[in-house]
Amino acid sequence: MREWSFLTNHGRVLLCIAHDPGVRLRDIAADLEITERSAYAIVSDLADAGYVVKERDGRRNRYIVQDHLPLPESTVRARTVGEVLDLLIGAKTRRRRTASATTATRAVRNPRKRR
Questions:
Q1: Phi, psi of 11 (to 5 degrees)
Q2: Which residues have a Cβ under 8 Å from the Cβ of 21 and sit 6 or more positions away?
Q3: Distance (Å, rounded) from C-alpha 87 to C-alpha 95?
Q4: Across the strands, what pairs with 52?
């Protein structure tokens, strides 16, 4: 019997990042049984689409999931990324940034809104 999954690799990578914002690409690849190159490409896709923001933290990256954004699929009721992540991994186990850190990050990321 063929193996299959309900979630795409993009969704699974997003879950890994939501669970641990400091996760390394190597660990994502190992957990999901994909190559590091695939993990890098998927994280880049998520960042390019605006669902994940990368920040340097010393020699490593930390990721911020933009959980307020709507999912890319059209559904009967639009769900946000955060609602789905909370459902899949639980609101209590998901690591979130403090409100002040989130506000500062959004201000830096969206300089066009100030114009």
A1: -65, -40
A2: 62, 63, 64, 65, 95, 97
A3: 14
A4: 65
Q: How far is CA 93 from the centre of its chain?
A: 15
Q: How far is it between the farthest Cα atoms of the chain?
A: 57
Residue recorded with tokens 């959980």: 67
pTM as predicted: 0.69
Position 95 scores a pLDDT of 61
Torsion angles phi and psi, residue 12, rounded to 5? -70, -40
Exposed/middle/buried for 55, CB within 10 Å: 0-12, 13-18, 19+?
Answer: middle
Q: What single DSSP character describes residue 23?
A: -
d(CA 80, CA 100): 21
Residues shown for the chain: 115
Q: In the numeric block, which tokens belong to residue 44?
A: 């880049």
Per-residue pLDDT tens over the stretch 38-92 = 999 999 999 999 999 999 989 999 999 998 988 877 654 667 888 888 888 776 6
